[in-house]
Amino acid sequence: MNTLRTLTEADFQPAPSQDNLEQISRPSLSYWQDAWIRLKKNTRALISLYLIVGLAFFTLIGPWIWTKDPAAQDLDQISQAPALPKTALLVKDFEPSATPIDTTHPPAPSGYPDALDAVTGLTVLGTPTTQSVRLSWSPVDQAGGYSVYRSESAPEGLMGLGLPLASLTAGNIVGFEDRLNLKSQTYYYSIIPTDGFDEFDVVSTLEVSPQQSITVSQALERQLIDSDDRPGQTVQLAFHPLGTDYLGRDMLARLMQGARVSLFIGVVAPLIYVLFGVFYGGFAGYLGGTTDQVLMRFADFVVALPFLLFMILFKIAFGIGPGESGILPMLIALILLLWPATARLVRGQVLRIREQGYIEAARLLGGGPSYLIARHIIPNTMGVILVTLTFAVPSAIFTEAFLSFIGMGVAPPTPSWGSMCNEGVKTMLSHPHELFFPALFISITVLAFNLLGDGLTEALDSKMRSKE
Amino acid sequence: MFRYTLGRLLSGVITVWFIATATFLAMHAVPGDPLMNEKATTAEIRENLARKYGLDRPLPEQYVIYLSNMIQGDFGISFTQQNRRVNDIIKDHFPVSAALGILAITFAALGGILWGAITALYRNQLPDIIIMFLVILGISVPSFVFAALGQLLLVNLNQWFGTSILPVAGWGTFSHMLMPSLVLGLGTMALLTRLMRSSMLEVVNEDFIKTAKAKGLSPQRIFFKHQLRNAILPVVTVLGPQIAAITTGGFVVELVFAIPGLGRYFVQAVQQLDYTVIMGTTVFYGAFLVLMVILVDIIYGFIDPRVRLK
Predict the structure, then answer these.
(1) Out of A461, B63, B115, B191, which residue is the most buried by the measure of CB atoms under 10 Å away?
(2) What is the ipTM for the molecules in this complex?
(3) What Cα–Cα distance (Å) separates residue A130 from each residue in A186, A190, A345, A431?
(4) pLDDT of amino acid A354
């Protein structure tokens, strides 16, 4: 405030009226309005608030927009990584093709060959599809058979040949049809000539990228085409923007349904137990004396229960019969175990506020107990309660995720973010997206609520008011 | 001091009794009993087994028998693991969990104090921003994700170097303990870093720091002798509850890293309704936690001369 200001004539005019001297020039703000203004200045808290609103939309509105059934399996695209919509080539149903035999070549060598040449002329017959890849090669002189290998990564010489597909036991069989669980990715086929029993140290490798395909009858069965479509055309496969899980279920739909479970537990459980804690603690604090002592002693005992052990125990104790999703028992267990923290906090607040001068003043002015509680004590503890509630949400979400992860939470097939992580961790190395997305959603939710809690703590702290 | 400790211990005993009772009630509220598996094929066998384990008696009697055995330090025999005493199960597997937990809390406390002090020293500068970002990550990411990522990291490291630098899973040597306990301590470390940072920043404005500066003490001396020592106090107070949190997190880490700790046995026992193992582990864990909290409170009294225990 050291900047000099040019003074004008107006600055030297006497105040217009004597009546308004005591009037406060700006409108007075209530505590909550003031807190809201402070919260809006906190960028991190505001972003968290938007995130939470976004999550709410994702959970509540999402399934209306993305109507895919979270339990439906897409058997064409199992463990599919996030990708753009895919098309598949329609192919005819499988018809066994004749084994390619080169009749000009003898089936067995005349003796025991010391060395064999590598296979030449290794090619693919027709279009390689995920239904079948048909290999063909020229016969090797003196060979008594061939071994066929398939690998997902390029082999280095004789190392890393991958999956042994076949051992052909005649030198004149010069082709092989691979139909083994093919996906639309690059494969490396290696052919090694043998003398009928032993492989020789020469290898020929061919890189093949089969095209995603689907047979006509499969496509009909999954209602991808009408009956009059002919093979050779392409059809649109179901779109999975976030990929599919190990059973071919749409990740986005499952994340949305999982959000309903995780956020339901994460929001409803804290709401109930914080409310209960407020009543319990407020009651104890307001009454004081022996009642207070006894009530708080009991709360201390509940706090001392080993949380996770009892969570598991209660979860099972309240879980009734098979076919239940396990959401309700988890909710009950959380509420039973977590209320004392709020009760303690609120009791402390009530004890403190009860001794404040303004309560004394209100009482002297004739305020009854219900008036005091409703008008003074509850509004003054609201800030603390709100902050507790905000921080309780991430811990409840964590607990749910944690229990589902160790297999004691929500029962399949109901998805929750935790149980999705549990499934995803098993295929972490080959299909990391199955772990990544649920873990990301848990982390973002927990982060948003934590940052909002931080922001609220600052905004509701009345000490901050004087600093501005 | 002595009277305070005695009083705390007494209330601790009552707490453990409460834990035992609550466990007993919750356990028996679960439908079914431990004899429901295929071993008890006929009603006769079932009856005999029930008599052997005392399950044929009324619940209050079972409760009294159970409590009196427990006071003598006997948790009974496991239902599912033939002829194995619960005491032995605890004796074999608790040290594993405890070792993991102690190392984890050491990592968490040392890391938390160190990072917290650094962030306070470099307030709003690059180290502070980087560390606080990591702290937010540490608080927001569930422990099982860290465990999975930690294991993945080990796999890749071992592949990269071509030898086994740290074992990926299992138990036995110190090197087995490093990654699991680090992963286990991460959440607590993040929490302690935050706490330490705010505590350090608060201490900076205290009068005794001004006095120390005015006396002409070196910045290092002020930092270590005056600032750090005073800022550590709030960290010590939360250590008690955090020990409980770490044993909780231990379950998952034990599961992911295939560590034969007590957590796995508990989950198993609950699924099979192994009454004695459930009771034994819960009461034991509960007693351990209660003891830890009391211990931390007493230690706090020693560290902070302002807190004289009444």
Answers:
(1) B115
(2) 0.80
(3) 11, 18, 62, 19
(4) 81
